[in-house]
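Example (one chain per record):
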Amino acid sequence: MTSQTAQPTIAGIRPGTWHVVSDVSTARFTVRDKVVGTVHGTLPIRLGTVTLAASGRLREARVELDAVAIDTGNPRRDRDLAKPRLLDTATHPLVVVTAGPSTPGPQGWDLDATLSARGATCPLTLRADPVAEDTAGIRVHVTGRMDRKGLRMTVPTFIIGRYLDIDVDLLLAARP
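Predicted structure:
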């Protein structure tokens, strides 16, 4: 935390800059299609920061995900997702989500965000709810839905569904 003030805000979170603890944070997605049904996957979180204002407002957030290490439980599908027609991980190895500013709600934040991948960006609406504070930091649960059409993927929706549901658990610590 970089701020000297210790006034609590939403769920007791103090203002300042918080860092994502990558090795215990998880980014998951689910997508439906007409062939396989529901596919679940994960993307490792490389790094991230969340900055809160003294008012409790989320000033800004940035999280970087490792697109090269996508894991759907099917190595062949993962290799296909890395190809230029889809994630193009050779050229664009990161998925970056940025958000803020936001006004706090009673328990968390509704965030207008931007997801950048494969050289394109698309809007994303997220809900972030702090769920617990412990000695390790603040645990935050983030959910949202993304329309992959914004990333200019040309794969038909019977192969990969149009909408991806996003479910992320973050541990935010005062120091990286």
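Caption: The chain has one domain: 10-173.
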